[in-house]
Amino acid sequence: LMLDTLGGIGNAAGELSMQIDQVVNATVPLAEEIEKSRLEFQKFVSEVNSSALTAEIEQLGLSFGFTAQQSLKAGSRMAQLSALLGEEVVPAATEAGIAFGLIGDMETEDAMNRLISLQQQTKFMFEGTTQAAYSQMSALEKRDLATRQMAMTLNRLNSVEDHSAATMAQITAVMNEFASQAHLTGESMGFMAAMSAVLVESGEQQGKAGRSLRMTYARLGADINGAAETLENYGVAVKDSTGSLRPLSAILADLQPIWGTLNSGIKQNVAQQVAGNRHYVRFIKIMENFDRVKA
């Protein structure tokens, strides 16, 4: 009887130990991953603000139905820009990045990377101000500006997506190939997105579409193989009074009424001169659908 009793106790203890092991296996790895995500996030922010920002990012992710690990990984991407934008804007920028991913049906990290790339190329965060003026703002002013500019950018991209067959993921993939060159000419974010969407709609691959626009800006700016001269021969000004390249939206708007009078052979010749032999078809697609780009 005593041996049977001891055996029963041993079996019960074994089962309890198994249950404890299962609880440990289910919780410890998750806790480790969360802690790793916290450490990754906190290495990009100052020690003074790390605890408060970590808690805010976790709470922010919770409001979107994200785990702490997911929200902290998203916050880490935006926190990398804290040296430029300030730690104050990290939560607002992270919220915009998460929303961007949800709206565009993208993985959060991919959405963050694309949004960061657009910011680095177009500096949309400083629209209406300068980086010098931005650095003089208070923490609250920086946060308000970040929230406003992020929302405005997402609205612009979402508006183009709503009126086209291209998705936001496709549009931003194209834009990230040429946005830097377009921004230097003063091109608007909306027109960049519209050109990208029209090329995607016409069956172009995202990378090739973006490279074609980048090449067009480069050829016109440097007058490679007479690209700028070709348009100027038709009375289309490529550069402004200061000698800077005009926005492509303005150049193409001036070319459009002339384009309609040309036959197919001359259109192809003009497109080859402007965009090069590898990308002239994409230039033709933009010109043939320019009314849709403007719409």
Question: Ends: how far apart?
Answer: 89 Å
Mean pLDDT: 85
Strand fraction band?
Answer: under 5%
Number of helices: 16
| DSSP summary, beta strand count | 0
Order of helices and strands: HHHHHHHHHHHHHHHH
Computed over alpha carbons, the radius of gyration is: 27 Å
Q: What form results from the Cα inertia axes?
A: elongated
Query: Uncertain spans, ≥5 residues at pLDDT below 50?
Result: 23-28
Helix content: over 70%
Overall SS class:
mainly alpha
Major beta sheet, specifics?
none
Could you please describe the fold and organization of this structure?
By secondary structure, the chain is mainly α. The protein is built from 16 helices and no strands. The N and C termini lie far apart (89 Å).
What topology does this entry show?
Blueprint: H1 2-42, H2 47-63, H3 68-79, H4 82-85, H5 90-103, H6 108-122, H7 131-135, H8 139-162, H9 168-184, H10 189-201, H11 206-222, H12 227-232, H13 248-259, H14 264-275, H15 280-288, H16 290-294
Helix pairs in contact: 1-3, 2-3, 2-5, 3-5, 3-6, 5-6, 5-8, 6-9, 8-10, 9-10, 9-11, 14-15
Keywords, separated by commas or semicolons:
single chain, elongated, mainly alpha, 295 residues, 16 helices
How would you concisely characterize the structure shown here?
With 295 residues, the protein is mostly helical.
